[in-house]
Design a protein that fits this description.
Strand order of the largest sheet: 1-4-3-2-5
Largest sheet: 5 strands, antiparallel
Strand content: 35-45%
CATH class: Alpha Beta
Helix content: 10-25%
Oligomer: single chain
Low-confidence stretches: none
Structural class: alpha+beta
Radius of gyration: 18 Å
Distance between the termini: 32 Å
Shape: elongated
CATH architecture: Roll
CATH topology: Bacterial Protein-export protein SecB
Amino acid sequence: MPKKNQIKIDISRLDIVEILPKTQIINNFPELNNIDAKIKYNIQLNPLYNFDSNIIKIELGVLIEWEDKGQDLRIGEFAYDFIYEYDKLSDITDPNGNITPEIFLTCSNISYSTLRGIIHAKSATTCLEKALLPIVTGSELMQGLYNT
């Protein structure tokens, strides 16, 4: 149940306008296909916004490493910017001018889910094809850094 005076977002006013790849690296070593190693994920998220243009930007990066015999081997690195537009961003601010955090949670969840799909598609037939990103909540993402 929403709290009284809680600002609610209207998802119909949110559009994803651009997905920009910044880094897409897969170190595909054939010998890694048979290694049964622990996969480690380092996920970083940075939310930004621009009131004047009604833009929300989610910078999202994922580092994928295998831990084998006490050493970490970097096998994948992805970084993307997700650009959203919210019709009248000023409508979801409190009297102090702060944007409701729910919009960042929503955009973070959409961005992460989309990036999971992108990585899964790009890693087909590579040593990363069985490495599925963990399910992470928007709240965990908003903390800025998630490690497994």
